[in-house]
Write a structure and sequence with these properties.
Radius of gyration: 22 Å
Helix content: 40-55%
Number of domains: 2
Number of helices: 14
CATH architecture of the largest domain: 3-Layer(aba) Sandwich
Distance between the termini: 58 Å
CATH superfamily of the largest domain: LigB-like
Structural class: alpha/beta
Order of helices and strands: HEEEHHHHEHEHEEEEHHHEHEEHHHEE
Largest sheet: 9 strands, mixed
Strand content: 15-25%
Length: 422
């Protein structure tokens, strides 16, 4: 098939990229906002509900004629072809559709990223203060908050902290919960390197994405641990770097670094191994996920070998939220106080498996409930537990603090916790 024919086919059988969406209410009218979590496109598109119904059929399996037929069945009226073609054109212009334009934009963005010395800040001045003086005061306020950690020394003071789970929710709201985790590092023994596992909200075809870029922060550059990166590249080539473009706009690693610098001392030289993760609990079941399972297994094995080969002491940090409930996350109704309380009870029961350092039990718990609460931090937490199991030395976790955040006008809710492993 010629290039021209392929382009025509893609326009007639459009495929929506992996976008995120949220509901929006203006007066009595309700809309859906679409945006690209990878940052390839900075655009947003506000759609009325009937148009949002249409784009759910942009899966490459439905022609525009079939999409129009679905609209007729749903609403009892015809969608004029010119309106449907305009919608496709708007989506393509904003790089919201799979196809040649999006692929070219991805190639150019990846090439530009790889030429940079470091991964630049993307959320400074938005999700946290960009000025170092103001940022220091902001972080101090989280420790001093009534929701922040207790003023008495941690029971783990002076010990080696093997791992942390901390939120990646909006720092302005969840900052005190972050502080519960980072207080443990502030008072514990400082390791040589931090393996930082972030939740990739944009999704990953291969489940794992490394980058070898240093990270810029308001407190100065955080360097990547070169011995670990070099070992992994030598063992696996570019296998785990093929999707590193997602690091540009992902916030889950960036939000941890100012906390980490602040907790250990902003002038202290520290190194990290930055990794983004995105794979479902069903990965462990094999079957259609067998290839992804093998990729994740390979990632865990090579990372463990790298840690052992370099002989460095390591702390593993998982940047991960827990349940996502409400209309924004695909539920039919907003959560009520009762449904949130039930979600909290289920979360805490699930986290017992995490405290017990049982990664398979953690996955099985989520699979048994059908992952209907959408535990988006699963892959980062699971990877943390597996990476901490490098030898026969036992370890356990302790939930320090649990909370939730509201994400829209419809009470959609994200839950999160700080957990320490010693």
């Amino acid at each position: 098939m010629s290039t021209e024919a392929l382009e025509q086919h893609s326009k007639n059988f459009p495929i929506l990229r992996n976008l995120q969406y949220s509901p929006l209410k203006q007066g009595d009218e309700q809309y859906i906002v679409l945006w690209d979590p990878t940052g390839l496109s900075a655009e947003r598109l506000v759609l009325p509900l009937n148009y949002f119904y249409l784009v759910q059929f942009f899966d490459g399996e439905h022609s525009l004629e079939q999409v129009g037929a679905e609209y007729l069945k749903k609403y009892g009226e015809f969608m004029m072809p010119d309106r449907l073609n305009k919608l496709v054109g708007d989506l393509e212009e904003k790089l919201f559709l799979e196809g040649a334009r999006a692929e070219q934009a991805q190639r150019e963005a990846l090439e530009a990223y790889r030429k940079q010395d470091a991964r630049p800040m993307a959320f400074a001045g938005k999700q946290y203060e960009a000025d170092p003086v103001k940022l220091r005061a902001q972080l101090d306020s989280f420790y001093q908050s009534k929701e922040g950690p207790e003023k008495t020394p941690s029971e783990h003071a002076g010990k080696s902290i093997k791992g942390l789970v901390v939120p990646n929710f909006d720092m302005k709201e969840a900052g005190p919960i972050y502080a519960w985790g980072y207080k443990e590092l502030r008072e514990g023994h400082i390791p040589d390197v931090f393996v930082v596992l972030g939740t990739c909200h944009a999704g990953l075809e291969g489940g794992i994405a490394f980058t070898d870029k240093d990270f810029e922060t308001p407190f100065g550059r955080v360097k990547v641990n070169r011995p670990l990166v070099d070992f992994i590249r030598k063992e696996t080539g570019d296998l785990f770097f093929q999707e590193e473009l997602v690091h540009i706009r992902e916030h889950s690693l960036e939000l941890q670094l100012p906390f980490l610098q602040h907790a250990l001392g902003e002038d202290r030289a520290l190194t990290i191994l930055p990794i983004l993760c995105s794979f479902p609990p069903a990965t462990l079941t094999g079957g259609e996920y067998q290839e992804l399972f093998e990729r994740v297994d390979q990632f865990l094995a090579v990372t463990k070998r790298a840690i052992e080969a370099t002989g460095q002491s390591v702390c593993v940090i998982a940047s991960a939220n827990l349940a996502h409930i409400g209309i924004r996350y695909g539920d039919q109704k907003p959560p009520t106080d009762f449904s949130f309380h039930r979600c909290m009870q289920t979360d805490l029961e699930m986290l017992k498996k995490v405290e017990e350092a049982d990664p398979e039990g953690f996955a099985e718990f989520i699979l048994k409930e059908g992952d209907h609460r959408k535990i988006l931090g699963f892959s980062a937490i699971f990877s943390l537990l597996k990476l901490l199991k490098r030898d026969e030395t036992p370890f356990t976790g302790q939930v320090l603090r649990y909370d939730r955040g509201i994400t829209d006008q419809f009470n959609s809710t994200v839950t999160y916790a700080s957990i320490v492993f010693v």
